[in-house]
Amino acid sequence: MTEKKQIRVTVWNEYLDEQKAPVVSAVYPEGLHKAIADFLNQGSEISARTSIITDPEQGLTEDILANTDVLIWWGHCHHDDVQDHLAKRVVEHVQRGMGIVFLHSAHLSKPFKNLLGTSGCLGWREAGEKTRIWTASPNHPVAQGIPSQFLIEQEEMYSEPFGVPEPETTVFISWFEGGNVFRSGLAYQRDYGKIFYFQPGHEIYPTFFHPTVQKIIVNAVKWVNPVVRIKAHDCPCMEEALEKIGG
Amino acid sequence: MTEKKQIRVTVWNEYLDEQKAPVVSAVYPEGLHKAIADFLNQGSEISARTSIITDPEQGLTEDILANTDVLIWWGHCHHDDVQDHLAKRVVEHVQRGMGIVFLHSAHLSKPFKNLLGTSGCLGWREAGEKTRIWTASPNHPVAQGIPSQFLIEQEEMYSEPFGVPEPETTVFISWFEGGNVFRSGLAYQRDYGKIFYFQPGHEIYPTFFHPTVQKIIVNAVKWVNPVVRIKAHDCPCMEEALEKIGG
Amino acid sequence: MTEKKQIRVTVWNEYLDEQKAPVVSAVYPEGLHKAIADFLNQGSEISARTSIITDPEQGLTEDILANTDVLIWWGHCHHDDVQDHLAKRVVEHVQRGMGIVFLHSAHLSKPFKNLLGTSGCLGWREAGEKTRIWTASPNHPVAQGIPSQFLIEQEEMYSEPFGVPEPETTVFISWFEGGNVFRSGLAYQRDYGKIFYFQPGHEIYPTFFHPTVQKIIVNAVKWVNPVVRIKAHDCPCMEEALEKIGG
Amino acid sequence: MTEKKQIRVTVWNEYLDEQKAPVVSAVYPEGLHKAIADFLNQGSEISARTSIITDPEQGLTEDILANTDVLIWWGHCHHDDVQDHLAKRVVEHVQRGMGIVFLHSAHLSKPFKNLLGTSGCLGWREAGEKTRIWTASPNHPVAQGIPSQFLIEQEEMYSEPFGVPEPETTVFISWFEGGNVFRSGLAYQRDYGKIFYFQPGHEIYPTFFHPTVQKIIVNAVKWVNPVVRIKAHDCPCMEEALEKIGG
Asked: Which of A94, A129, C131, C158 is such that its CA lies 20 to 30 A from the CA of C93?
């Protein structure tokens, strides 16, 4: 029997302020990207590497993207520092089939906003409050093995109204202790590419060590993994008609 | 200038157990249907009447439905007592254009289940808890004039997962004190008919006297009011081809 | 390595008028259901059996459905002869996870209408005309290995407007020689169940011997095959609150 | 009674090559934009002006957009000449509520691609062939008064697969003489803004003088006309929690 091909993941992170902030490095000493890649690499189905904004071409070279099945994006304070032509390169790879998983504050990143056509706007509060993530669509592949709800003891709050287009599937909805709700797990498609957004993951909390969060991200990677990936969008001129014209 | 036509609403209710339960009649002495019709009739745009399960043909005669632009449905313990052919009559009127607003426990009524194709299943709890209704889609017609969130002091809790098809628009999402969330305002279309579901409205709470709830129901009536209403679904045989076949 | 579980398919057919009509039996001597089961059984991934309206409980016993992963439905002139409680049984199995593929004239069957909440109405013409099926969503699992378009030399024409709810995905759209178009491959979900509708397959044409049609139906079977299947829809009472109420 | 407010439309056009091409100026002597504005101005409900790429700030000043309820966009060979910051300005006005109608080849314009997150890719052929536009969603506001199908004698062919996200509503689908089909009328929403795409309108054909095409564009203008328009997307920090945290 043939070996099943591993899913090649690249976890992209800014990794600028976090390095300097003790409150972050205490939780993620080698950065969030490293923590995420680590749990993805625990199984045999995924092979994850990392890439950061200070890498050549901001870690988004043509070679990296062409050899990435699924890109995971975490960014926060440096969304605008990502160069336009590199954000566009990411968007076009997604349109040709590369999967993408946007985590937490990536809702204001250039690739998120350009793929969804949205402002990405929402309400927020940093109060270390409890959040309960509810599974709204238990039959969606990203919800497999996830309970009907689970608790994260401390997270940043994100609130509706969330200015995103109505998703293909609302997979998760979050409850926050302070009285807010948020559509926290959303599935989209754009051309050949699948997109998943997941809300938890503020940099000062150990969210990415939570086993249910890890399982959701593994599921998301598998779901956005391309069914088809094309080389280029060529918009073909169909010179020859299939049926006679002006007969 | 010509007078704008009033929207003709029929508010349907079981009105069986409520009559006998002091805890309900204390709040709605003449029944929920009467309270709903009353606030709808306060403006000049809507003309509302009522209809109950003990009326001839369970209040769902062909004449009533043919002269109803928007049907509002409240039912709870007697869903199964609604006769199949009358539920079907309602469904077919909706498919031909009649608008319908399902309130609260109507999620298990026959017309709801047959129009949405769903089990209507959800979690629930009667604990008189606080609920906050959040506006997820502030640009939807049903959300006009509604704040980003509002409080109802006591309501029955309904919880995700809610086994409904992904809606055309998720207009409202509710937060419950006990830790649950629920998609509480959902917009659908079936053939020519528009459908709105709204969660608050348990019979022992004065929810239908809440001004924001009233405004949402008025908005919903206006939104589901038919754009087009056809006489019958005839599935036409198009004998004559527009283009030559076998040329 | 463990053996992958076969998908258990039941192909349901009326098989009444066809038996008597030479124009049908000349093409499908043992019935359409047998022809469909035959090509499904050619690979090792699917195990297909058949069931017809003259079987006990119209071929829709609890035992059959409980042991069916995917039901394929073909019916035409006897939609109304399917008993209501059996149509309901099919609908409830779909809501709990059983996949269903509706072929051709099944758009007026009771399970189709009750799952989609639609009239199922459309225009039609029996003129043996050419149809070209176009792939609108090449990244959908049902379109895998299907060219951007293919020709069927003779088919019954079905035309827009097709009174169905906007689908989760419009996978195929058909061109007809006589000047009509039709959304001919549509993907839906209802609760835990996946639904695929595919238009070609009139009983007097050898459509089900067309290799591309066969591949589409195989793909559809794989796509609707349940991710999750639950035993019952129990709408749980969540007596215990997760968070303190009235604190 | 108060006067109903007119919808303020700006029709944007490149108007570069067309001026020089006799084959275009023979049909639209003052440009397509002028022809479109003319029929929009025939009724009393719409007040249309025009704007072209050689105007100051490419006809897309902040003042123009702030005073435009609905922008109509026609462009073809100069999509890439539209400056990024001006395309972004258009996108942001749409996200805050301005309606937009994309005509024909505008599917490759920057605002279209950035709002829908799509490549905009499709097949095409310039053969002056017949096209029939079918109404798939007769209850959509843009389809009001439009027959179930109508003929345009000569148009450029656009073909599936069309790399757009599944729309909120598929309003029109086109049949082409040469054997192709195309989703030719599509409705979307992004944040507060409504978007309509309509396929017919190649520059060498008198399509914009076709009364049914004109009615569709008038309907589209009315449908995308903002329900709500906000000043800015401010993503509010909700410092004060509604409910007590850490109680």
From this structure: C158
Low-confidence ranges of chain A (pLDDT < 70): 1-3, 247
Q: Which residues of B touch C192 (CB under 8 A)?
A: 163
Between chains, do A138 and C192 touch, taking CB under 8 Å as contact? yes
What whole-number distance in Å separates Cα of residue B225 and Cα of residue B70? 6
Could you say which residues of chain B have pLDDT below 50? 1
* Residue whose C-alpha is closest to residue B106's, from B231, B220, B233, B232: B220
pLDDT tens per residue across span D71-120:
999 999 999 999 999 999 999 999 999 999 999 999 999 999 999 999 99
d(CA C176, CA A240): 18
Based on the number of CB atoms within 10 Å of its own CB, is B161 exposed (0-12), middle (13-18) or buried (19 or more)? buried
- Cβ of D183 and C247 within 8 Å? no
Which one of C91, C122, C241 has the shortest CB-CB distance to B125?
A: C241
Which of the residues A95, A129, A139, A177 would you substitute to probe the C interface, choosing the one with the greatest number of C C-beta atoms within 10 Å?
A139
Closest CB from B144, B168, B227 relative to D227 = B144
Share of chain B residues as helix, strand and coil, in percent rounded to the nearest 5: 30, 30, 40
Q: Do B178 and C243 touch (CB under 8 A)?
A: yes
Residue C9: pLDDT band with limits 50, 70, 90: very high
- Residue A217: partners with Cβ closer than 8 Å, 6 or more residues away: A36, A39, A40, A72, A101, A103, A198, A208
**Interchain pair B242, D97: CB under 8 A:** no
Helix (H) or strand (E) holding B129: strand B123-135
- For chains B and D, what is the number of CB pairs under 8 angstroms? 36
> Model confidence at C189, in pLDDT bands (50, 70, 90)?
very high
User: Omega before A200 cis (within 30°)?
Assistant: no
pLDDT tens per residue across span A57-116: 999 999 999 999 999 999 999 999 999 999 999 999 999 999 999 999 999 999 999 999
* Interface A:C, Cβ pairs < 8 A: 37
Residue whose entry in the numeric block shows the structure tokens 């609403």: B9
Query: Residue A50 carries which side chain, given as an amino acid letter?
Result: T
Q: Do residues D10 and D64 make contact, with C-beta atoms less than 8 angstroms apart?
A: yes
CB contact under 8 A, A244 and B244: no
Can you state the percent helix, strand and coil of chain C, rounding each to 5? 30, 30, 40
- Chain C residues with beta carbon closer than 8 angstroms to that of D160: 134-136, 148-149, 173
**The complex's ipTM?**
0.96
C192 vs C18 pLDDT, higher one:
C192
Q: Chain A residue closest to D239 (CA)?
A: A125
Write out chain D residues lying below 8 Å of B132, CB-based.
242
A189 vs C139, C192, C242: nearest CB: C139
Residue C82 is encoded by which pair of tokens? 């399917």
